[in-house]
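Deliverable D5.2: sample structural annotation.
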Amino acid sequence: MWKIFFDMQQKYVIGIDVSKSKLDCAVVSSDFQLHLESVIFNNEKRITSYLKEMLKVLKISSADLLVCCENTGIYNRPLEKVCIRLGIGLWVEHAVKIKRASTDMRGKSDRKDALRIAHYAIRYNDKVILYHEPLDKVKEMHILIRCREKLISQKGAIKNHLKEAKTHDKFEYGILVQSYKKMLKTLESSILEIEQK
């Protein structure tokens, strides 16, 4: 991801609150006026049709629009792919930064969060970092790191279970050691393999 400064040449910002199954969207003009609010399914087909529709309704080109959302990991993928495909600027910002900057709106809802995100993108437009699709090798590294973390977490949970049983119930501990033996070996082997990759 490369830093590109955004001089508010875009006429509209769409603030999007991303969740697993849906996107709450708030279309705001550069003078902070709310124009449209929508809730759409979080899949590439629906996002594509929504963004194309917004370009038509607002009578603008892709260059006149900036989409801003919080970083929600894998749930952002459909939006990232569509914005790259349509040539629409996408700013994926850390949730903490948006939360700290938003002190003027009370209450919490997905709809309000979408508006907060849009306002943040307009107010802090000089700090924008446009999303660029990383190289496949970089994506692979991120996936492997997440996978390793998950496996280490599972291994830790099993070890904690064994530790608690050992200090409180020797009989249960004996059974658990035998039950978890293969699983722990597999987890350790998988973690090592990922680390080598």
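Annotation notes: The domain at 12-127 is CATH 3.30.420.10 (Nucleotidyltransferase; domain 5). The chain has two domains: 12-127, 136-196.
The annotation will be released with the project's public dataset once the embargo ends.
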